[in-house]
């Protein structure tokens, strides 16, 4: 049997709405990897589409948690950061990366802070600068098009892209410092929605298209990132892992659209988990 890989997922817990830790834990576990958690904040719901959510900031707990893990000689095969609950957490996560980075550790930063041309509520321009710096410490970054534009101080553009635009954005993103970059929300034709990835070591760029389902569903970035990291932990190369993440995210969105539960409750990833696990075990039908 393969060695069990251990991931530390550094995200918030939004009690309702299926994003961040409530999707990273089940998806990475379904991949057959262990998912440890460092919660950055606890909210009643995520901040996109709900009014009056509670927000407990856990900034002060993060460093002591990391120090305890270190004292217990706990090691990680991957460090995966997402939604950070305060500006101060960016520096703490940067220190956590330094504490736990070993030669084989994969540091993946999803600079969760914006979508559809807008910053999420609670974030500022300072957050954008801090996230761009944190991306420089990562091996792999996973921004959406809005986050990419903001971090690169470019105008956000939606709609279909050309290959030249995608290549240019990916190369600019790798200039932030990470060896590998995955850009989400990429499509060339109206019926598609997918991602593109760059390995700056080889210069190789891949475009992966899925079938677009109309509507913007919440938490899809976290679902995508978790499917991606799970596949990487099971030994898949970057383009193959991106393809798996696009396929399973699209499948979850399709089921959600059929359910008609609306965009703010997140996507029905639960119903594709068993299949995803089997695929990574090499037992797909
Ligand atoms: O999925 C991104 C995300 C994560 N966590 C919280 C959020 C959001 C997006 O709005 O509000 C709390």
Count of individual domains: 1
- In the sheet with the most strands, the strands line up as 3-2-1-4-5-8-9-10-11
Describe the sheet with the most strands.
9 strands, mixed
Roughly what fraction of the amino acids lie in strands? 15-25%
Secondary structural class: alpha/beta
What is the averaged pLDDT score?
96
Count of DSSP-assigned helices = 9
Q: What order do the SSEs take from the amino end to the carboxyl end, as H and E? A: EHEEHEHEEEHEHHEEEHHH
Helix fraction by DSSP (H/I, runs of at least 4): 25-40%
Ligands bound to this protein structure: 3-hydroxy-5-(hydroxymethyl)-2-methylisonicotinaldehyde
Tell me the number of strands.
11
Question: What do we call the CATH topology?
Answer: UDP-N-acetylmuramoyl-L-alanine:D-glutamate ligase
Name the CATH architecture.
Answer: 3-Layer(aba) Sandwich
The radius of gyration is: 17 Å
Stretches with pLDDT under 50, minimum 5 residues: none
What is the level 1 CATH name?
Alpha Beta
| Shape type | globular
CATH superfamily label: Ribokinase
Spatial separation of the terminal alpha carbons: 20 Å
Structure summary:
This protein has 285 residues and is α/β, with parallel strands linked by helices. The protein has 9 helices and 11 strands.
Would you give an account of this structure?
This protein is of the alpha/beta class and 285 residues long. It has a single domain (6-280), classed as Ribokinase (UDP-N-acetylmuramoyl-L-alanine:D-glutamate ligase), CATH 3.40.1190.20. Strand 4 (78-81), helix 3 (88-100) and strand 5 (106-109) form a beta-alpha-beta unit. It has helices at 21-30, 59-71, 88-100, 125-135, 145-151, 163-174, 220-233, 238-259, 273-280, and strands spanning 6-16, 34-45, 55-57, 78-81, 106-109, 114-115, 118-119, 140-141, 180-186, 192-199, 204-211. The strands form 2 sheets. The chain has a 9-stranded mixed β-sheet, with helices on both faces. The chain is built from 9 helices and 11 strands. The radius of gyration is 17 Å and the shape is globular. 3-hydroxy-5-(hydroxymethyl)-2-methylisonicotinaldehyde (PXL) is lined by residues 12, 14, 19-20, 43, 46-48, 83, 112, 120, 219, 221-222.
